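User: Show me an example of a complex going from sequences to C-alpha cells.

Assistant: Sure. Here are the input components:
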Amino acid sequence: MAGNTEPLSPRAKLAVTAGRAAAAVSRAAGRGSGSVIGGKVALKLDPDLLGALAQHLDVVLVSATNGKTTTTRLIAEALRASGPVVSNALGANMPAGITSALAGGSDAKYGVIEVDEKYLAGVARDVTPKAIALLNLSRDQLDRAAETRMLAEKWREGLAGSKAVIVANCDDPLIVWSASSSQNVVWVAAGQEWKDDAWSCPSCGGVMQRPGDDWFCGECGFRRPTPSWVLSGDHVLDPHGSAWPISLQLPGRANKANAATSAAVAAVFGVPPQVALERMYQVQAVAGRYDVVRFQDRELRLLLAKNPAGWLETFSLIDQPPAPVILSVNARGADGTDTSWLWDVDYPRLAGHPIFVIGDRRLDLAVRLEVAGLDFRVCETLDEAVQLAPPGQIELIANYTAFQDVRRRVGN
Amino acid sequence: MSDNSLRLVWVYPDLLSTYGDQGNVLVVERRARRRGLDVQRVDVRSDQPIPTSGDIYLIGGGEDRPQRLAAERLVRDGGLERAVSNGAIVFSVCAGYQILGNEFVNDMGERQQGLGLLDVVTVRGEGERCVGDVLADIDPQLGLPQLTGFENHQGVTHLGPAAKPFARTRLGRGNGTGDGTEGAYNDTVFGTYMHGPVMARNPLIADLLLKLALDVNALPPIDDRWYDALRAERIAAATQPA
C-alpha cells in the first residue's frame, strides 16, 4: 500500500488545494496554524478525502485519555527509521485536523495519527489502519464527554470488524474490553496507576478483584490477558523475552509505558525494538510538555495534566520536596467547565512541597488543598508565584488552557 | 453517635464516585476534625454489607449502568434502610439521589425500584441534558445560605407529598420539572443534583449534617476564608455570566 502508487482523484486534489488556501487565510488572519479550518474546508468538498489521502500510507492510529500526543510522537520517531512519516504532531486530532496533516505529507510512507477518543471508530473505518494503539481510558471532562464506560463500549463495537493489529494495554480493564472484540491484538503490560474507573466489570458489572498487578472479575471470568510485551522498570521485554533498555529524555513512568507501547507498534511495521527505542531518545518535549524553560531567572518544568489519572502520573514524576510546585487550573470550554474532578485528584501526595496556586479556578484549588490539609499560597499571576517560590527548579502542573496560558507567558 | 467517634460512611465508591462527589466525604470529615471530633470513615464497596451503625451516610453520582447495579445491590442489602430507621443522616447526589427515591429509569430504559427513603420518582428527561452552574435558595427552614453547584444529569425528579424541595433555583434546572425545585429532603434524608462538589461550595451543608448527627444547635466556628472566597466567586460568576 505504501508509496504514491495511485494518484488522488481530481476531486480530492481540488479539496486539498482549497483546504490549503483556507489554512493560509486563517494563518494570515493570525488564527493559529489553520490546520483545522483547512481540513474542514477540504472534507466538505470531498468527504472521502481522509480515506483517499491515507490510501497511500501504512497508518497507525493512537488513542487514549492520556499520553496520545506523546505516544504519537514516539511512534513517529521510531518509524522514521524505515521511511518518511506524516503525523498530526501538534495534537489536532479530530477528522479535520487529521485530514489537514495527511494532505501535507504526499511523500510519506507512514501515517502516524493521534485520534480523539470520540472519533476513533469512524477514523478507523475511513483510513483502514495497519495498527491501532490503545493506551488507557479514564474519566475526563464529564460535563461534555460521553461516559467513560460508554466510550469503551463504542470502541469495542467500532473495532470489532477491523483488520488492524490492535496494540493494547492489558493493565487497563476498559482497554481490554475495548480491544478484545478484535481478531488480532498484541497485549502490552504498560501499567496504569489510576484504577478508579474500572472497579466494575465492563462485561458483567461484577466487582473487580485487583491483587497486585493482576485483575479479574470474580463473577464472569473476564480477566487480564497474558501480555506479549511487558514494561518492567526501565526495560521493555519483547515477545522473545529479550529486555531492551528504555532511555528517554521525557520523564516519568507513564512515558516509559508510552515507549513500551511504541516499541510494540514499531515491531508491527518491521522496526526492531532496539532501533525504535534509540530513536525515541531524541524526543525532548512534546508541544511544550515536559519542557524546562527559563523565566525570571528561574527554571520551570512545564507539565500538562488534564484529569485525575493524568495528575496521578504527574505527581509520580516530579522532584521530591522541597521542590516548589505551581498548580494552575482553568475551566474554560476546552478544559470542561465543571471543576468537581479536582476532588478525585490525590493532592495529599504533594505534602512537603511549597505549593503555589494560580489559574482562573485557583479558589476551587484552594478549598481542595485546605481540605487536604496542605500549606499553600494563592497567587494572582504566574509571575507572582515564581517570585514567591523558594529556590530550586519549579515543577509547574497545569490543565489544558492553563498550560497554554503559561506557555504564552514564558514565551515557550 | 457511638463511642465518641463520628462514623462517616461512603457508600459504593466503586460504582458511585465518578463526578468528584467524594469531595463531600473529605469536607465533612475535615470540618468534623477541625471541631476536635474523632472521625471514623468507612468506605463500603458494593460487594460488602452496608454497616447499620453509621452516623452520616454519603452517596455520590455515577454513570447509568453503575447506578442500576448500585440500586440492585442496595435494595438487596437493606442496610441503608435499617441505618435510617436507627436515626442515621443520609446525603445523596445525582444518581445517588435518584436511587434513594421510590423509582427511577435505568440504563436499559426500564423503571427500577429505589430504596424509598425519599418520596420522589425520577423519569428520563426528553429535552437536553441539564449541564451547568446552578444558583438556588435553600428551604428557609434549614437556615442555610444560597446554594451554588454544578449540575450534569438527564433525570427529571418529581416530589411526592412526603418530600420537601431542598431548594428553589434562581439559575439552572435542578429537578428538571420546570417548577424551580432542586433536590428533596425529609427529616434525615437529603438529595440534590449538585456537584461541585456541593459541600466544597456550600460547607454549611456539611455543618448541618454534623449538627443533626451530633444533635446540637451550633458548632464552634472555623476558618472559612477559602470557602467564602470560592462561594462569592461562583455566585458572582453565575449571576453575571461573562
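The lines above are the inputs; the final block is the predicted structure for all two components together. The radius of gyration of chain B is 17 Å.
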